[in-house]
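To illustrate the input format used throughout this study, we show a single complete record. The first block contains the structure-token representation of the backbone; no residue identities are included at this stage. The design step must infer an amino acid for every position from geometry alone.
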């Protein structure tokens, strides 16, 4: 098996160096050929120097690719085009991988049962969820890059996160690359480039598995454990969902291009927010109100573009 790890980065040279250190310590059988392709998405810090240092220390293992078109999806697609492996794995520049991460992530692809794999992304050891978040489903941790479906392997019916997934190279030839109208870029925090890509595969009948032994740890800086960060992240995610899925089938009533039922949802969640006294329940309601408000704004914006 030949594997290319694609790691896209932008102005995070310090955390990037720690990530690359952990990747350099990966343990794989000698029969497995693997490389690390770092896609520098027009960084202005010391990213190039950091990557070139690893290229010198580990000859033939690390490569640097400069992608001047800023935007996560542009960087991802550039990496896929330049990848040499018949299996392509993805991770981010703010993680620490376990030594067995890549081997465990790609073993399922040795059979024809799966076209892709999602691993288990856990928070750094000192992470503690804030009390105001409460006990919510795992997807609430999306803004922190955490994806944990438990200890048992299973077939995926939802998308893993882009910081811990792998696909056969042929998948991109069959289903296409990442959509460039999605994914963070200067002036926009709209994401979902990874979830839309996986949704495309699942909708077409492709099978993906969850491999809990493919573990890495995602950094959660203190500035991200803030209500403002979660509200901003989920608002951008809501806009991305409208861009990805459009108007739900069967929707009949609109006001200025916006499905009427969204205004009703906004009113309900706003009232719950205003009249909830439990901190966790109050934030949960506020979060949903922000999500619906963003959906309304995006539907309105797209209706104006259509005109």
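Output of the design step:
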């Amino acid at each position: 098996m030949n594997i290319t790890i694609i790691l896209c980065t932008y102005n995070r040279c310090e955390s990037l160096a720690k990530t690359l250190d952990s990747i350099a310590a990966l343990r794989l059988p000698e029969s497995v050929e693997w490389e690390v392709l770092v896609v520098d998405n027009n960084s202005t810090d010391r990213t190039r120097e950091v990557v070139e240092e690893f290229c010198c220390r580990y000859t033939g293992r690390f490569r640097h690719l400069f992608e001047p078109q800023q935007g996560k999806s542009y960087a991802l697609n550039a990496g896929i085009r330049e990848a040499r492996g018949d299996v392509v794995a993805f991770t981010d520049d703010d993680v620490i991988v376990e030594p067995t991460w890549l081997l465990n992530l790609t073993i399922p692809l040795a059979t024809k049962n799966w076209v892709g794999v999602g691993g288990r992304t856990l928070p750094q050891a000192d992470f503690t969820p804030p009390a105001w978040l409460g006990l919510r489903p795992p997807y609430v941790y999306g803004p922190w890059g955490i994806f944990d479906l438990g200890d048992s392997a299973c077939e995926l019916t939802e998308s893993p996160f882009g910081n811990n997934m792998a696909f056969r190279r042929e998948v991109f030839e069959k289903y296409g690359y990442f959509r460039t109208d999605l994914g963070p870029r200067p002036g926009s925090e709209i994401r979902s480039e990874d979830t839309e890509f996986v949704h495309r595969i699942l909708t077409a009948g492709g099978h993906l598995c969850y491999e809990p032994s493919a573990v890495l740890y995602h950094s959660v800086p203190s500035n991200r454990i803030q209500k403002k960060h979660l509200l901003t992240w989920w608002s951008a995610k809501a806009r991305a969902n409208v861009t990805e899925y459009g108007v739900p089938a069967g929707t009949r009533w609109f006001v200025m291009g916006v499905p009427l039922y969204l205004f009703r949802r906004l009113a309900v969640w706003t009232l719950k927010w205003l009249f909830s006294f439990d901190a966790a329940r109050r934030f949960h309601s506020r979060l949903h109100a922000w999500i619906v408000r963003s959906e309304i704004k995006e539907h309105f914006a797209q209706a104006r573009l259509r005109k």
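Structural context for interpreting the output: The chain has a mean pLDDT of 93. Residues 4 and 88 are 5 Å apart (CA to CA).
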